[in-house]
Amino acid sequence: MKNYVNLTPKLLILIKNKIIRAIFAGFLGKGISILVNFITIPIAINYLGNEGYGLYATITSVLGWLQISNLGVGLGLQNALTEAVALEKKETQNELINTAIFLLFFFSIITFLIILIISPTINWLEIFPSKSISLQNQTNEAVNLAIIIYILIIFLSFVGPIYAAYQKLDFFYSWNAVAQIAGLLGLIFATKTNQGLQGVILGINGANVVLITISALWVLKKLNINLSIKNINLNSIRKIFHSGSAFFIIQISMLGIYQADRLIISQVIGMSSVTPYTVAFKMFSTFSLLISLALGPLWPAYGEAKSKGNRAWIEETHKKILKYGGLGYLVITICVLIFYKPIFIFWVGEEAMPSFILLLVISIYFLIKLWSDIFAILTNGLDIIKPQAISAIFQAFITVPGMVILGKKIGLVGIPLAGIFGFLLTSAWLLPYITKKYFEGVVQTK
Fold it and tell me: Which end of the chain has fewer surrounding CB within 10 Å, N or C?
């Protein structure tokens, strides 16, 4: 017999209203971001060329690996802070945020010092090869600039989790939209003043960092968070790393899966092939993102409902997201596959247009990814993290070598195909199985 503890009607309505508000703001904010992104890509390709844009995409993708140096602190903070917010423990909230900020600052400094020491010994031209002499001359400076930007992003990785834990993602999405607009303006300035690859990186990614910083200061002030060394303590560190350590493992694995693709393409197939892959990937990741807008607010909502004991609401909400999310993605995807030629020729031009078979395989990849993500958000909210970490490790070990092997054997299509195999053999079946056991009362959370 399932023992469900019901939330009071007033609290249930409050949770639903928070979710609806965040989803609505998400569609508005992300809608603006997506539109800006679609404008940004053809401008960047037109300015840098196919190989240049491929180099930009590869550099920013590979340096995303630096995010692992936050050791899962951001996502660990989100789960711990969500519980503290649900239980209305203001002092604990203050301590968790202060401790997370201190940890991220410390890890950012350590990362910077390590890179400062080893960077002169690295031949970036071998890692990011290009045929153009002009691009080769810009690569070292572009990489160094991108490193600084990504280290700042490591430090700022506490921002999103704070918005999520307080269920204020509507504000976060709005800030994100402003950041994307600032990035577009930065790109236009870089192209008009001919600042080269470095200017594009600074214009797009640098502008985003500035806006994230402003949004961090705004939310800390709005929540009356008292920043003080006195609020840093070992108990908060333990709470953050309770799930943060598992999130760290997931981060490493997912970065290998999602960030290695462009590097592998540049090394195995060629830098110019990165661009058609990236635009195809961007198209379907956008559709997946639109569906996933409902998922972001659900993570803290699931956590709050779990803290209050409402398993029935969690199960009902999860089933609805699974049904309507998958259906929405399929409808959009079919339309794109039917009209892909005029869409991509209008968007990025014929030279950067991906093949139909590549689009088809990537669309299937994102369908399976969306399926897995829906279950991952649920298990994240329920704080069932360790099975995900184990699954992520196996998925990375399957996917990354698979990309290399299939990329060499069958070309560009082999990259997303390896990703499909990685999902099907791990999280696509394991996470639904864990979820089923949770609703049956077999799997317990803390």
Answer: N
Nearest to 311 by CA among 167, 165, 430, 438: 438
The reported pTM is 0.72
Q: What angle do CA 435, 438, 443 make, to 5 degrees?
A: 120
Per-residue pLDDT of 259-308, as tens digits, reads 789 889 998 998 889 999 999 998 888 877 777 666 667 777 787 788 77
Distances in whole angstroms, Cα of residue 284 to Cα of each of 290, 291, 292, 357, 366: 10, 11, 12, 14, 7
Task: Please tell me the number of Cα atoms within 13 Å of 215 on its side-chain side.
Answer: 27
**pLDDT tens by residue, 208-248:** 899 999 999 999 999 888 888 888 888 888 888 876 566 67
Please state, in angstroms and rounded to a whole number, the distance separating the CA atoms of residues 30 and 50: 26
Tell me the C-alpha distance between 59 and 259, whole Å: 10
**Cβ(418)–Cβ(362) below 8 Å:** no
Q: In whole angstroms, what is the distance from residue 100 CA to residue 155 CA?
A: 10
**Length reported for the chain:** 446
Count the neighbouring beta carbons within 10 Å of the beta carbon of residue 233: 13
**Tally of helices (H runs) and strands (E runs) in the chain:** 18, 0
CA 358 – CA 103 distance, rounded (Å): 42
At residue 3 the predicted structure's pLDDT band, cuts being 50, 70 and 90, is very low
DSSP 421: H
Q: Which amino acid is at 383?
A: D
CA atoms within 13 A on the CB side of 161: 29
Q: Whose CA is closest to 143, among 74, 92, 190, 197?
A: 197
Report the SS3 class of residue 168. coil
Distances (CA, A) of 248 to 67, 235, 258, 303: 10, 19, 15, 19
- Residue 41 pLDDT more than 60? yes
Per-residue tokens: 17:
């209203």
Alpha helices in 166-233 (DSSP H): 169-192, 196-201, 207-222
